[in-house]
Amino acid sequence: MPDILLYALLAGYGVAMLAAPLGCFVVWRKMAYFGDTLSHSALLGVSLGLMLNININLAVIFSSLMVAIILISFQEKQRIASDTLLGILAHSSLSIGLVTISFADNVRVDMMSYLFGDLLATGPTDLCWIYGGGFLVLATLAWLWKPMLAMSVHAELAQVEGIPVRKLRMVLTLLMALVIAVAMKIVGVLLITSLMIIPAATAQRFAKTPEQMVVFAALLGIMGVSGGLAASWYFDTPAGPSVVVSSFILFLMTQIVKKKY
């Protein structure tokens, strides 16, 4: 197997396993649009990283966190409807990022790789970020699994029982920002949320327990990565979007099977 394909497979599998549990929380808590907002803000982090000459992954995590803090503070004040606020922040942060990059005359930027990913350009450094960040995310989720699950089932009841819901929301936001930073290379900022949501939504129809849903989502994500990379390799299609299309095909197939049987 060529190194370029091996690195791509390892990176894709790592992101699939990493995105599975967070994707389940996104589906359970109906946070799809929230995830989109964070992923759009990732481009602002990219522009800041390039302008200030700092690590892009760290800049993406920082920008996503800032947007999340702004979003949560506005939601608590309840001055603007949540969906309206999400729409404002998502498109504003994306536009600010694009405008900021346009001022960087001394920086050459391949916007397509940031918007739609460049999976076949994955290298050893990217693998270190993916698996290092993945270990941190999965360890944190394993530690906070029960309170986060209680928060997802009924936030008000969890708060009454003494679970720090507000802190857990911030932790979940931080973990999503970290996943977006490491997965940006795989599918780009415009498609990151789909890599979390589609396998989780597919697994939801067959899983009987939350833990089973996470395992199924990870397996379906790995299958989506394998199918997308195969299509990209043999048909010369863009790798990131091909992975999402492959995951979507699996989703459609499970819908048909479920209805038939």
TrEMBL record:
Keywords: Cell inner membrane, Cell membrane, Ion transport, Membrane, Transmembrane, Transmembrane helix, Transport, Zinc, Zinc transport. InterPro entries: ABC_BtuC-like, ABC_TroCD. It is found in: Cell inner membrane; Cell membrane. One of its GO terms (cellular component) is ATP-binding cassette (ABC) transporter complex. GO terms for biological process: response to zinc ion; transmembrane transport; zinc ion transport. Pfam families: ABC-3 (PF00950). It is a multi-pass membrane protein. The chain crosses the membrane at residues 6-28, 48-74, 86-107, 128-145, 174-201, 213-233, 239-257. SUPFAM superfamilies: ABC transporter involved in vitamin B12 uptake, BtuC (SSF81345). The keyword Zinc applies. PANTHER family: ABC-TRANSPORTER METAL-BINDING PROTEIN, HIGH-AFFINITY ZINC UPTAKE SYSTEM MEMBRANE PROTEIN ZNUB. Belongs to the ABC-3 integral membrane protein family. Involved in the high-affinity zinc uptake transport system. This is High-affinity zinc uptake system membrane protein ZnuB. It comes from Endozoicomonas elysicola. The lineage of its organism: Bacteria, Pseudomonadati, Pseudomonadota, Gammaproteobacteria, Oceanospirillales.
